[in-house]
Amino acid sequence: MTEHPLDASTRIIDSGVLDAPVNRMNEELHELGEGVAIVESFSHSVVVDTGAGLVVFDTSTDRNGPKVVESMRSWRSDAVDSIVYTHGHLDHVGGSGAFADDADARGQAAPRVIAHESLPPRFARYRNTSGYNRVINLRQFGGAATDLAKSTERPFLPTSVLDPDVTYSDELTITVGDTTFEMHHCLGETDDHTWTWIPEHQMITAGDQFIWMFPNCGNPQKVQRYPLEWAQSLRAMAAKEPELFVPSHGLAIAGKDRIRTCLITVAETLEHLVADVVDAMNSGAILDDIVHSVHVPAETLEIPYLKPMYDEPEFVVRNIWRLYGGWWDGSPARLKPPSDTAVGTELVALIGGVDPLIGRARVCSAEGDHRMACHLIDVACAAEPESAAVHEARIEIYTARRGVETSLMAKGIFKGAVSDSQQALSGEMPEAKFVVSLGDQP
Fold first, then answer.
1. pLDDT, position 142
2. What is the mean predicted confidence (pLDDT) over 54-61?
3. In a domain, 327, yes or no
4. CB count, 10 Å around CB of 243?
5. Is residue 346 part of a domain?
6. Quick check: 80 and 111 in contact, CB under 8 A?
7. d(CA 171, CA 422)
8. Phi, psi at residue 204, to the nearest 5°?
């Protein structure tokens, strides 16, 4: 059995030293208090025994769901009265079918599913853009383009996922047995998030509003996120003065003061970032100026629960611009630009071939100027997409860039570039070009 999550979080937060993994996916169950347990999985499931049935928050993925149920059943055999989706991402709802199967096998009533009213439209969007969603998730988590055909054969939203039986708008309070569940809608990583206050346990389940990393509020391949509203939700949670705080990723946290410090620190970080971007916008700065001038202090990014290991501030800056300023970045040349192919062809003609670009890109990469190196090699690739020399250099350059990045978002996309060039070298250019051409998604 791994270290108890409350012991680990207390040590890490109090010391300020990240000395152990915080996002554990071991399918182990830990009791967090009398009648409260967590199963640590790809996303966690939080289980509350009400005395009149279990209430479960999130179900992990379709692959992990059966293991989550097995761990839960090692603790309690009671019927699951309700499943609460904290939001509609697949790692939170995908395992719901396993809970339905378990109820059926036990001769128990199927669990009631509760979610915010924006979750069913999310499911509809997932069904409508199934292949697209699979492609961007494949890239985000480092999959190769060769996996594309296999990944698009099955629906992005598994058919086993349970649709909500009950939805709400702003707030919903239910009582199961002797336990009260006060659900609150908030914007943040998604538009359908639910955090829940459980007064009998002085406890909050928070979904992905706190993930033990820099907030996932700028994902370059996903739809709009809401950093200021995210911060407001953290302040609202802190105002409840919880003694137990349970996110869907990372470690559960105990202690009113410790929880408040974590929530307010993340809230202030997001608020300052929004203020800095908006101030720059108000001064007339364009996106390029803002991306290269607005930063989160390095010491803030060293806090154990704010490290940019998944998302990162630069991406959040771009998302803030998109939220308040639209899709145009402020440069008139980029309002209706020529195609990448046209630009690449023109530049290559001016300098007499792709070799100078390849050479200079390699020099920039070796000197640590990875932004310039990637830009130059992609100009060459746009001009001569079938050049083996270009793709060989591109593999080297993007591999080097991936090695210095911290966030999974960046690492996944740069690995995708490597995979695309590997495919091009193997003669599978049409499929690789299709993958490269896909843009931002939900």
1. 64
2. 98
3. no
4. 17
5. no
6. yes
7. 50
8. -125, 135
Number of domains forming the structure of the chain: 1
Residue 293 has pLDDT above 90, yes or no: yes
Domain assignment present for 381: no
pLDDT digits (tens, 9 = 90+) for 110-136: 999 999 999 999 999 999 999 998 888
401-431 tens-digit pLDDT: 999 999 999 999 999 999 999 999 998 654 4
CATH number of the domain that residue 51 is part of = 3.60.15.30
Does 90 have pLDDT greater than 50? yes
Looking at residue 191, what DSSP letter applies? S
DSSP per position, 207-253: ETS--SSS-S---TTS----HHHHHHHHHHHHHT--SEEEESSS--E
192, 119 contact by CB (below 8 A)? yes
Distance of alpha carbon 355 from the chain centroid: 39
Q: What angle do CA 409, 43, 188 make, to 5 degrees?
A: 60
Pairwise CA distance, residues 119 & 116, whole Å: 6
Q: 313-325 and 227-239 helices cross at what angle (nearest 10)?
A: 110
Q: Is residue 441 part of a domain?
A: no
Beta-bridged to residue 47, according to DSSP, are: 37, 56
Q: Residue 402 carries which side chain, given as an amino acid letter?
A: R
Tokens encoding 170: 């702003």
Domain encompassing residue 140? 5-266
Confidence (pTM): 0.92
